[in-house]
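Quick one, probably user error.
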């Protein structure tokens, strides 16, 4: 699922009365938002236990990452509505939209979020603070943001002629192999060609039924794929990945979703720089595979940071793909050898730059790029966590 357009934020506005109320109360609500969101999730999961069992990432909930991500998105959107100097959170909303369609989120679920979120706001701030006028203004903020996301997600579903939420497909594991100490590769095959060829760099959500009866979903970047099969790399770092390693074998049937994700290799002949850390190499290999398949002649630079050569799970495949290209090079940086990934002097001029890795890594690389005078519009990134707002 992919569209070239972005979420439509420019046309959304509050009424003058609501804008004045949000300006007056944003410091208060914003200051308490990290207290509000845990209460919200507790209320929602109590009323709808199927959501934490079957849709939401329980690991992110335990760590508090999902709460921070929701808090940041609401505060950022409200700030945009009342401050012309505030950054437009369009990139964040695009990532949220892709994540939602990858989980099969539908319009009716926004009402569930609304009802429990506003109950949490009243509980934390008090009914004397959340007067009818204040509630009405924040209600307007929520539904403006919800409408932007629903419309964008509708476009994403329609990009593959899908009904909203109709993204889950049964697949059979047709290959499983270990790439490193903690990374496994799986090939997932649909017997009736019910998948959709992904854009280079996208991901799929994989669902498994755990021992406690919960259907948990996790997103995994695609190494390659077409309408018949997806190939993913899984780093063992949680309950779903551990289940896939220990309990899922070749021949078993699991669930996956139609590919989504906004970190997609752009067409054209601009030079390309692919910069990654750890398992962040996976979407980069997906992009390299596409470039090799189309016999691209554009200059390609691959920079990868890892603990060691042994922990670089896609090292052999990445090098093989680089060797197939007419103008490409791969440089690796290993912490065990005291290396640090430096971008200065390594990037082609005017390159489109793609980043994937942990929060700290992306912040560091983006700081290096800024110091090197790289235009922000040329930098595209993906995180394996809900907290891309940190970057």
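Nope, works fine. Designed sequence:
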């Amino acid at each position: 699922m992919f569209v070239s357009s972005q979420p439509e934020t420019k046309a959304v506005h509050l009424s003058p009365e609501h804008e004045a109320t949000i300006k007056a109360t944003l410091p208060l609500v914003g200051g308490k938002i990290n207290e509000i969101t845990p209460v919200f999730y507790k209320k929602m999961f109590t009323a709808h236990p199927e959501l934490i069992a079957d849709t939401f990432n329980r690991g992110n909930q335990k760590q508090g990452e999902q709460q921070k991500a929701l808090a940041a998105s609401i505060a950022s959107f409200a700030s945009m509505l009342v401050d012309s100097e505030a950054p437009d959170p369009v990139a964040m909303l695009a990532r949220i939209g892709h994540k939602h369609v990858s989980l099969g989120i539908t319009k009716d679920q926004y009402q569930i979020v609304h009802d429990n979120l506003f109950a949490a706001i009243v509980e934390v701030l008090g009914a004397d603070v959340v007067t009818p006028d204040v509630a009405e203004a924040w209600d307007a903020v929520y539904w403006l943001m919800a409408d932007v996301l629903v419309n964008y997600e509708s476009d994403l579903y329609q990009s593959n002629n899908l009904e909203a939420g109709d993204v889950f497909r049964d697949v059979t594991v047709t290959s499983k192999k270990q790439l490193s100490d903690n990374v496994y590769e799986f090939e997932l095959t649909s017997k009736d060609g019910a998948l959709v060829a992904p854009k280079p760099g996208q991901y799929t959500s994989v669902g498994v039924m755990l021992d406690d009866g919960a259907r948990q979903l996790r997103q995994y970047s695609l190494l390659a794929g077409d309408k018949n099969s997806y190939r993913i790399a899984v780093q063992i770092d949680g309950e779903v990945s551990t289940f896939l390693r220990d309990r899922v074998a070749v021949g078993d049937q699991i669930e996956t979703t139609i590919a989504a994700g906004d970190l997609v290799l752009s067409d054209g002949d601009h030079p390309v720089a692919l910069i990654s850390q750890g398992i962040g190499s996976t979407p980069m290999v997906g992009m390299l595979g596409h470039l090799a398949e189309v016999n691209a002649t554009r200059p390609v630079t691959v920079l990868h940071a890892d603990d060691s050569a042994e922990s670089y799970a896609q090292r052999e495949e990445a090098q093989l793909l680089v060797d197939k290209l007419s103008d490409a090079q791969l440089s690796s940086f290993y912490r065990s050898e005291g290396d640090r990934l430096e971008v200065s002097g390594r990037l082609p001029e005017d390159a489109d730059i793609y980043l994937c890795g942990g929060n700290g890594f992306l912040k560091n690389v983006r700081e290096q790029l800024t110091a090197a005078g790289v235009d922000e519009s040329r930098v595209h990134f993906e995180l394996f966590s809900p907290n891309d707002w940190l970057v």
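DSSP finds eleven helices and eleven strands in the chain.
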